[in-house]
# Entry
Amino acid sequence: MLAKRIIPCLDVTAGRVVKGVSFVELRDAGDPVEIARRYDEQGADELTFLDITASSDDRGILFRIIEQVAEQVFIPLTVGGGVRQVEDVRNLLNAGADKVSINTSAVLNPQLVADAAGRYGSQCIVVAIDAKQDVPGRWEVFTHGGRKATGLDAVAWAKNMQALGAGEILLTSMDRDGTRSGFDLALTRAVTDALEIPVIASGGVGNLQHLVDGVKLGGADAVLAASIFHYGEYTVQQAKQYMAQQGIEVRL
Amino acid sequence: MVDIAVVDYGMGNLRSVQQALRTVAPDASIVVTDDPDEIAKAARVVFPGQGAMPDCMRELDARGLRAAVLQAARSKPFLGICIGLQMLFEHSAEGDIPGLGILHGKVVRFAGNLRDAQGNKLKVPHMGWNQVHHKTNPLLNPLPEGEGAMAASTVGGSQKVDEHPLWQGIPQDARFYFVHSYYVQPQDDALVQATSCYPQPFVCAVARDNLFAVQFHPEKSQSAGLALLRNFVDWNPV
# Structure
């Protein structure tokens, strides 16, 4: 049967991998190409690169990073951050990305998701949603790296994106991101139950049981984590072995 | 002389296919091309495809590549990938359109509301790493009575005797990366080279003579995928 995916996430700025807490306080974690190669060797199922500053200066650096990774690593690569038009999608795919993740621009211009999926296929369009609990059972979508409230309900928004052609949802809990206290399982469950397309749970992983909970309790199709892998706490292989011991189907 | 031509009809990202081929065949000349002459001259042809099959068919014809692909599929080592597998069949439910009709059979969509054995919802697209069962697995491909008894005695305990050369060195049930909502249903079971389960078995690899085609993405399936591509590069069908 299909394996649940483990996806290390590399937040990239100025050519380096960094990691923050609740979207601030960035800490250097190393060279993206080297880190990507290490995770591939450890058995990562995919890799996600997020260009967290997405300034025009950094854009060229990001393209070179993706090109270098794509020459050496033969697993799916998702790249996001600063994708504003269909041309950005094309450029990232040409650089070696297999999927492109769209976040703020999907809110500002939902037609971009439809156009990009229509042109390149749903399989390569990931819509990233940053959500924050409003009241229990309701989560609001934020944009601009978590700085701007939109008033949109995360579950309704995710369904809307599915209808426009998104192939997958990358769902980040802003309340949990960087806290190491585990995924927002209620949020994950609410979104995954509402959708036909796969959902990647993100935000809050601090130990391997959190990954298991994301799949078993949250119903996630894939789990994304950054800091537990970056600082050598756990390898991807250890994460997979632990999940397998807990009865989750993984690629070992 | 071009060793390997990757057919480019504007659908999807061919760079990863080219990159993976380069890795397994560093000395080969590999071109990504929309030129029918180059496809005709190449020793081997890879036919990838991403996105929706109606768009793929339209773009293939818009570039005047149909004849070159049909010719290659009949005459030289030919590898179809993903939509490049689906397009070989006669009809697709995606857009209700005809395919190239090189192989008898059709392309259908995964049913809605799929559940696994524990009752968990299975998403469509089928996306991620799934196990690929080669045809020789007797559990999945029970031989008809009589024939089975004969095969068993010939095989003498080894299951690998009849395995297609493209599976060489790839363990049974190795995982490959999939992303698709439709799958092929060949009319002739003899074409089937592998199945995968979601949750029911579906065909994920077919072969006939010089042609081999897979639903998964070998170029994104790490070592198992590279092994299959290496086998394709070394393959000399009679």
Notes: The first helix of chain B runs from residue 15 to 24. The two ends of chain B are 21 Å apart (CA to CA). Confidence is low (pLDDT under 50) at residues 137-160 of chain B. Chain B touches chain A at residues 11-13, 15-16, 19-20, 23, 50-52, 55, 112, 116, 120-131, 175, 177-180, 197-199, 219-222, 225-226 (CB under 8 Å).
